[in-house]
Amino acid sequence: MLFLLADDHSLFREGMVHILLDHFSNTTITQVNSWYDTHTAISRQQFDLAFIDLTMPGQGDWDDELKQVLATSPTLPVCVLSGSDAKTDRRKVYEMGAAGFFHKSMLTLEIKQNVTQLLNGQRVFPNVRENAITSSSPSPLTMRQRDIMHLLTKGYSNKDIAKELNLSEGTVKCHFSSIFNTLGAKNRVEALCIMQKQHW
Q: pTM for this one?
């Protein structure tokens, strides 16, 4: 398979390359860092999947640049990468016909699962986490505890959570005990209900 990864942040590209190569064998990844180089690469090579950051340097607005990409290669699955939480951006990308929208805070296991869906011909527009915007009050949980609860909402088991966050299953269980005590919850279902009510 041949992937195009277009992003002007080298550290992010390196992280994505590591994740993709670790999960998808026999894959070659072409990297570019501007809209101009993106257009050039697509005109010269037939890719199986393209990941494109919206905020790269370019000649025009990102929607004009993306529209050109989609028009040049209408059969190419294009997945947009963005650090923005704006629902309007996600909606616009969807309506323009892109195959997917990945927020840059997406976790490793989510990326792998969603890329698999893209390669199977599905469109992938997962909800962007907007806790920081919609919270009515600060969450009493630590960042690590919030990561664990986020994975729980995705249906992850203790084993999956431990693998995703590089923790032992015992440590994950300890985190859950602490979460229950902090929230005054008896179990995971109660903890999730409390977090949803508080918009944490």
A: 0.64
Task: Please state, in angstroms and as integers, the Cα–Cα distance from residue 62 to each residue in 35, 55, 58, 96, 156, following that order.
Answer: 9, 7, 8, 12, 35
Bridge partners for 2 per DSSP: 28
Lowest mean pLDDT among 21-25, 45-49, 83-87, 135-139: 135-139
Dump the DSSP string for 63-129. Answer: HHHHHHHHHH-TTS-EEEEE----HHHHHHHHHHT-SEEEETT--HHHHHHHHHHHHTT--B-PPPP
Is residue 94 domain-shared with residue 141, that is, in the same domain? Answer: no
Give residue 150's pLDDT band: very low, low, confident or very high (50, 70, 90). confident
Q: Please give the structure tokens belonging to residue 190.
A: 């109660």
For residues 55 and 81, give the distance between their C-alpha atoms in angstroms, rounded to a whole number. Answer: 9
Q: Which of 65, 84, 119 is the last residue of a domain?
A: 119
pLDDT of residue 34: 94
- Return the CATH number at 174: 1.10.10.10
Max Cα–Cα distance, the chain, nearest Å: 58
Tokens 């986020």 belong to residue: 150
Q: How far apart are CA 101 and CA 51, in angstroms?
A: 9
CA torsion, ordered 120, 115, 132, 198, to nearest 10 deg = 50
The domain boundary, picked from 119, 143, 168, lies at 119
